[in-house]
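Problem 12. The chain below contains 141 residues. Write out its predicted structure in token notation.
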Amino acid sequence: MSFVTVAKAGEIAPGTLKHVEVGETEICIANVEGAFYAVGDRCGHENARMSRGSLMGTIVTCPMHASQFDITTGKLMSGPVLELEGITEKFAGCPESIRKAVGEMFAGIAEEQRLIRTHDLPVYEVKREGSDILVDLNGAH
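Solution.
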């Protein structure tokens, strides 16, 4: 095992997330009622930074398309949510040809989004030594 100190426990309040980088590895550290968990900090859908999302209990929600993952297992729980309905109304003052082109473009984007597979997040073993939070970088699963 290859544990590396990544943060101080006091830096991550209960119910919050923290982004850390160790070399090329980006990690999202979560504090769930005093227990610390670590997953890869890039969403398995479109690579958004998970640490910029939200944490409710053990569920972390991606800030980009609201995919939800269990922070304890890295498993995808739901998502992504693609909110493109009503987009053409934002172009109501434009000529019909523009509204039609925009509608077709966003319909194509929505279709492509549905084809993107969302992968589970890698999970890292975490341990606490005093005030230090350590992560095993070689143990991602």
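Discussion. The helical segments are 96-115. Students who got a different answer should revisit the alignment rule from Section 12.3.
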